[in-house]
Amino acid sequence: MTLTGNMLIGQQAITGNREAIRAINPATGTVLEPAYLGGGSEHVEQACTLAQEAFDSFRETSLETRATFLETIAAEIEALGDELIDRAVSESGLPRPRIVGERARTCQQLRTFARTVRAGEWLDVRVDNALPERQPLPRADLRQRQVPLGPVAVFGASNFPLAFSVAGGDTASALAAGCSVVVKAHSAHPGTSELVGHAIARAVKESNLPEGVFSLLFGSGREVGVALVSDPRIKAVGFTGSRSGGMALCKVAAARPEPIPVYAEMSSINPVLLFPAALQARGESLAQGFVASLTQGAGQFCTNPGLVIGHQGPALDRFISTAARLVQQSPAQTMLTPGIFQAYEAGIGSLQELNSAQEAAAGLRGETPNQCQAHLFVTRAGDFLADPALQAEVFGAAALVVQCADDEEIRQVLEHLEGQLTITLQLDEADLDSARAMLATLERKAGRLLVNGWPTGVEVCDAMVHGGPFPATSDTRTTSVGTAAIQRFLRPVCYQDFPDSLLPTALKHANPLHLRRLLDGHREVLENA
Ligand code: NAP
Q1: Measured between alpha carbons, how far is residue 504 from residues 144, 217, 516 in Å?
Q2: Is DNA repair given among the entry's keywords (predicted)?
Q3: Whole-number Å distance between alpha carbons of 464 and 495
């Protein structure tokens, strides 16, 4: 397909009229064609009008229709073939195998949501049958199901040009819930966004859905993004990016006459706790695993392990010296955008100026533009507790080791932490009691706790939580990865004393969708289930 530089408002290709966005190949600094003229508030108006018009019929499509639609999007993305891979590689600087893997994850994510939609558990049907004879008062017939919130605004993320962008997790979960979606493309990968946008638009057409189910806008966050979040027809927002961007959008959403939820995934330094027995027994291999996770993808993962906490002493010293040696040997890697590279360099510069942290190692220098040089810093618990700057996310392959005198200092450091997506526990049998004593604190701090693994690599499955207390996310109750992400875009409605003919299909007395309902206080066991 020839890239056009146009937005997609429903099925219409529309040329913007604001400043042009041009992708840059971060590996070479080359500007890529075509130019994408940014949209403005008038384009937001058109897209939201269509999204609102589409919503009521899209939300009542059958589970089968919606599931097939998600599978059709996946098939259309796969049909884009190498053109999509080539463009995503040149717009992101990410290695080809990573982009191929990300496409697979994106399509698997869509198919996983298709399975979820078909199963219907997300409707969470609850039935309390009428009790006309109950004393002293009769009970009405009460039935509850989940309904979609309304049109959703999705902000494509820079660090997952496929899996968390135009057809990524936020879009897939919102469509699965029955919400129409308007995407604000990330300006770093407009060509990739256009290709995927067309794949979704084709799936909309093939599935005979109203065109407003999906639109794709280009433009500046401060104009298009703010107008989108402000539009009264938008009922929720999905975002992955910087803390400042996420918070700006949260403020816009909260200031609306009708405030709406913003599910913003922002910043996390993903602490790794090295327990004494594990550190003593396998410090060398822990250092290897840690540096591999730290430097993977130039550290541009929201789950990148940016903080290591352990008891000071010879075992931690050996861990630090092995990790430092490995960091020094680690090659520089191209970052996603010149802006992200500059932000990384600025973050490293700030750490280097602090007296409270010492630089233990720097990786190999880059020889081409925008290359991330890995860095390892070391500090003491007292300094970490005293200086909030030491727990700011430096997006890239940078980490800080915090040396603690005893369990009490580790406890203080944990209490001092901001909310996290993940906390990793490296432990052996002899460490279990210490770990158990910390669990309550760890649960308060993070959305996912892992033992003897590394936080990078997020499985898309039913049990995953990719969320956590602020600032990891703006809403600690939810996840943006995994099938539970659908719940962000739903709300319950109760139907009291409705005649059966007026009830939605999911709530009818005969249970035609064969759902496992919560019936008069008991979960139904279905024959042939
Ligand atoms: P970003 O600057 O937050 O941008 C993400 C999206 O939000 C873009 O579409 C952007 O629009 C929009 N936006 C940003 N600020 C806004 C504002 N004040 N009002 C309205 N919209 C706004 O994120 P990024 O470009 O991906 O990367 C920048 C930094 O974000 C990185 O250096 C890193 O620190 C952080 N980041 C963190 C994660 C993570 O998972 N923790 C992931 C990616 C990035 P424009 O098109 O106008 O820029």
Answers
A1: 10, 34, 16
A2: no
A3: 32
258 and 291: one domain? no
Q: Cite the active site residues.
A: 265, 302
Count of domains in the chain?
2
Residues with CB under 6 A from ligand 1: 155, 157-159, 184, 186-187, 220-222, 225-226, 240-242, 245, 248-249, 265-267, 302, 340, 343, 395
What per-residue confidence (pLDDT) applies to 150?
Answer: 98
Q: Please give the residue range of the domain that contains residue 89.
A: 7-119+140-266+479-487
User: Where residue 224 sits, what CATH number does that domain have?
Assistant: 3.40.605.10
Same domain for 253 and 339, yes or no, is no
The best mutation among 242, 345, 421 to test binding of ligand 1, ranked by most ligand atoms within 8 Å of the C-beta, falls on 242
Backbone angles phi, psi at 65, to 5 degrees: -60, -45
357 with 242, same domain: the answer is no
User: Does the structure show a pLDDT above 80 at 527?
Assistant: no
Per residue in 414-447, pLDDT tens? 999 999 999 999 999 999 999 999 999 999 999 9
Same domain, 148 and 29: yes
Q: Does 515 reside within a domain?
A: no
Expressed in angstroms and rounded, the spacing between residue 339 Cα and the centre of ligand 1 is: 10
Asked whether residue 146 is assigned to any structural domain, the reply reads yes
**DSSP 8-state secondary structure symbol assigned to residue 10:** T
Q: Is the pLDDT of residue 144 over 70?
A: yes
For 187, the 3-state DSSP assignment is coil
Residue 250 and residue 181 share a domain: yes
